[in-house]
Task: inverse folding
């Protein structure tokens, strides 16, 4: 089992990222789960390189590598490759990140109109990325992305399956899971994270769902009930975006299903002995 979830790569967030527990990990080999320290950001390119190594290791040991997780960018980078965008100038990145998202989107409208029209004006991450690329390299991100390298999609026998559960059930499970996270160590997990003196203020692990909300609770600016409600709302919104992405972005021929019977996986993966 190879992790393809951007939050589950960090060892700091077993509970809030819903990583498999020790009992699950003991059943089969788990790779790339909790293998990175939260102080070091993990990019899609870095994960893809690690995933290629993990896949090769599994194959060399006669095992079937199964990638699981919901980070579409990670999977797309692994299968299709990545655009060779040069390192962004530090001064440009700092300037762009300091801009309010409305100002950044207005600037992007002038400097990369196509990207500005494609992106939601409030999408801080993607707007900032597009703007920093065009300012640092003189070329748009779409231009760089036209040429990708390093993908393994054409060299492997891929058996994809997209799980799209019923929305009402998904929302109910998300809400219940947040309650369990708060009650079984999620708050303490964030407290331990905040106690670290080596964690950068912009570390991605700080932005994982549940961390900002519990941070506000620990600071006294949110009650436990309000923090839980905010984390549940953030999770539902993320699940909606994730659901939409996996419904529309992967190739149409990839099978979609609302339910996978645990005792009949061969129906979907006839390569499993």
Result:
């Amino acid at each position: 089992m190879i992790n393809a979830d951007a939050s589950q790569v960090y060892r700091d967030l077993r509970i809030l990222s819903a990583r498999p527990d020790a009992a699950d990990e003991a059943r089969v080999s788990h790779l790339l789960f909790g293998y990175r320290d939260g102080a070091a950001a993990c990019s899609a390119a870095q994960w893809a390189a690690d995933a290629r190594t993990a896949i090769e290791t599994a194959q060399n040991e006669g095992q079937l590598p199964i990638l699981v997780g919901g980070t579409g960018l990670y999977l797309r980078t692994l299968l299709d490759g990545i655009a060779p965008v040069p390192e962004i100038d530090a001064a440009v990145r700092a300037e762009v990140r300091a801009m309010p998202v409305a100002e950044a989107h207005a600037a992007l409208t002038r400097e990369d109109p196509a990207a500005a029209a494609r992106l939601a004006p409030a999408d801080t991450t993607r707007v900032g990325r597009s703007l920093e690329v065009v300012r640092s390299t003189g070329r748009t991100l779409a231009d760089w992305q036209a040429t990708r390298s390093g993908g393994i999609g054409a060299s492997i026998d891929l058996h994809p399956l997209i799980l799209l559960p019923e929305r009402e059930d998904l929302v109910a499970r998300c809400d219940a899971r947040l309650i369990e996270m708060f009650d079984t160590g999620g708050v303490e997990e964030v407290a331990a994270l905040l106690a670290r003196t080596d964690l950068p203020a912009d570390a991605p692990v700080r932005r994982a769902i549940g961390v900002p909300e519990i941070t506000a609770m620990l600071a006294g600016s949110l009650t436990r009930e309000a923090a839980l409600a905010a984390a549940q709302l953030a999770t539902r919104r993320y699940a909606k975006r994730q659901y939409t992405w996996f419904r529309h972005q992967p190739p149409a021929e990839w099978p979609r299903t609302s339910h996978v019977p645990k005792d009949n996986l061969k129906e979907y993966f006839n390569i499993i002995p």
User: Anything to note?
Assistant: The first strand starts at residue 2 and ends at 3. The first helix runs from residue 22 to 27. The two ends are 15 Å apart (CA to CA). Strands lie at 2-3, 67-68, 162-163, 256-257.
